[in-house]
Write a structure and sequence with these properties.
This protein is mainly alpha-helical. It has one domain (2-161). Helix content is 94%, strand content 0%. The chain has three helices and no strands. The chain has helices spanning 2-8, 12-144, 150-161. Helix 2 packs across helix 3. The longest helix has 133 residues, at 12-144. The chain is rod-shaped.
Length: 162
C-alpha cells in the first residue's frame, strides 16, 4: 500500500483537507442550490402532471361534445329531411286539390255555357218559329187573298207547328 501511496503521491493531510472542502462545498450547494432546485422541480413536475390530467379531461369533454354535436347535427338533418318530405307531400296535395278545383270550376263554367247556349238556342228557335209563322201567314194571305183573323191565325200556326 505504501507503494501505491508513493506512486500516486497521496498526502493524507491534503486528502483530508480536500475531503472536508468537498463536504463543505457539497453541503452548501445542497442547502442553497440543490434543495431549492429540487423543490422547484417537484412543484413544476406537479404542475405539469396536473396540466396533463386537465388536458386529458378537456380532450374527453371535447370528444363528448363532438359526439353530441354530431348527434345533434344528424338529428337536425333527419328532422329537416322529414320537414322537406312533409312539405313536398303537402305541396303535392295542394297541387292535386288545386287541379281538382280548377277542373270543377271549368266543368261548372262549361255547364253554365251549355245552359246559356241552350237558352239562347231555345230563344232563337222560338224567334225563328214566330218569324216562320208570320211568313206563313203572309204567304197564306197572299195565296188566299183574304186577311186572317186571330183565331184562324192560331189554328193555322198550330197545324204547321205539328
Amino acid at each position: 500500500m505504501e507503494n501505491l501511496i508513493e506512486t500516486f503521491h497521496i498526502d493524507w493531510k491534503i486528502f483530508i483537507a480536500q475531503l472536508i472542502n468537498f463536504t463543505v462545498v457539497f453541503a452548501v450547494l445542497y442547502w442553497f442550490a440543490f434543495k431549492p432546485l429540487i423543490k422547484i422541480m417537484a412543484e413544476r413536475s406537479g404542475k405539469i402532471s396536473k396540466s396533463l390530467e386537465e388536458a386529458k379531461l378537456i380532450e374527453e369533454k371535447l370528444s363528448e361534445t363532438r359526439a353530441e354535436f354530431e348527434k345533434t347535427i344528424s338529428e337536425a338533418k333527419r328532422q329537416a329531411g322529414l320537414i322537406l318530405e312533409r312539405a313536398a307531400a303537402e305541396s303535392d296535395a295542394k297541387k292535386k286539390e288545386t287541379v281538382v278545383r280548377a277542373k270543377e270550376e271549368i266543368g261548372a263554367i262549361i255547364n253554365q255555357e251549355k245552359q246559356k247556349m241552350q237558352t239562347e238556342k231555345a230563344a232563337t228557335l222560338k224567334e225563328i218559329r214566330k218569324e216562320v209563322a208570320d211568313l206563313v201567314i203572309l204567304t197564306v194571305e197572299k195565296v188566299l187573298g183574304e186577311k186572317m183573323d186571330e183565331k184562324k191565325d192560331r189554328e193555322m200556326i198550330k197545324k204547321l207547328m205539328k
